[in-house]
Amino acid sequence: MDVLVERCAGLDVHRDSVMATVRVPGKRRRQREQHKRAFGTTIAQLQELGEWLQGFGVTLVGMEATGVYWLPVFDVLERRFECWLLNAQHLHNVPGRKTDTIDSAWICQLVEHGLVRPSFVPPPEIRRLRDLTRLRKAQINERGRAIQRLEKVLQGVGIKLTSVASAAYSVSARAMLEALLAGTTDPNELAELARGSLRGKIPQLREALANRFELTHHGVLVSGLLAHIDALDQGIAALDARIVEATEPLAELVELVSTIPGVKQRNAQVLIAECGIDMSVFPTVHHFASWARICPGNNQSAGKHRSGKTLRGSRWLRQALTESARAAARTKGTYLASHYWQIRGRRGEPKAIGAIRHDILVAYYHIARDRVPFRELGADWLARRHSPEHRARRLVRQLEALGLNVTLEPAA
Q: What is the full per-residue pLDDT of the chain (412 aa) written as tens digits?
């Protein structure tokens, strides 16, 4: 088998150790020498690993994506070598022969002969932005869980606030909870704390706020949950400010991505963090959608096409695209909303949301590559994409299939 990389290394990365194998040209023609050595995962040990690899003149380093343990290794070595992060599913070896030494040698041989391809790893500044957006999303999800726990406590004491109000946690709900913690349990007094449109439902609130709230027990639960929600609000606000600061050089791109229906500033930041801004690493938009796993899979054998299940991609990217797709489906007079309702009528909501996710991802690819705003096609584009003659022929065929004779005459 041809050797495509003369001096390469394979790393088997774990939490506390890195097994490295280097393959270089031997003394004889077409002979290969192999060297192995184990290292720790501290910064000093990783620096020593870099010196050891540089001593052999290594030009390419391949490593398996193992949890988060590959991150410090990649961060130290990418400044000195070309590093490839490899998908673990592409590295299966012969069963029954698995050790750290064998795994590192196998990775090195695959890289040596060009039998694997690297995964997309964005540059360091995008990876740092990704850390911020993912932490913010985790805290937003935790805030939602805390509100659900708060609702559970209120239901337990007989307060049916969500039966009247549309949200379990709002300005009015917070005022009522503060009053409960202050010792006020009278439903009439609690109902008078309603604000905005909720004041039109005060009679229903009086009935829904009758309770058996005990300050010594339920007060401890509610005060702890409110403090947790306040801390999360502060953390989310701090992360919002930090993300805006980190995306300041990309403010124009954030604004352009926000022109996509259903995509606002937060989701635009997530798209940039998860997908990067350099679309030249993807030959076409189809490669981009395939990398993101926002497209059907291929499952064909013996001339038969089976169900092409969508593979698993970044759950952070999928969540952001799903949120944007649901928001786009509620817009008025847009192509994305029209496309959603057309597919939903034939194939159901999950398929329709999946199609809009793909539409948004395709739009992001062209916006990030060409730095242009989203071009709205219009709600009637699906009807306008074919010529009037083509549409007339299609309608005539449908009528003839019903057993009718059709004669076409031009309108006056």
A: 788 899 999 999 999 999 999 999 988 877 889 999 999 999 999 999 999 999 999 999 999 888 899 999 999 999 999 999 998 888 887 777 788 899 999 999 999 999 999 999 999 999 999 999 999 999 999 999 999 999 999 999 999 999 998 888 999 999 999 999 999 989 999 999 999 889 999 999 999 999 999 999 999 999 999 999 999 999 999 999 999 999 999 999 999 999 999 999 999 999 999 999 999 999 999 999 999 999 887 778 777 877 777 878 889 999 999 999 999 999 998 999 999 999 998 899 999 999 999 999 999 999 999 999 999 988 888 777 788 888 888 888 999 899 988 888 887 7
Distance separating alpha carbons of residues 391 and 404, to the nearest angstrom: 18
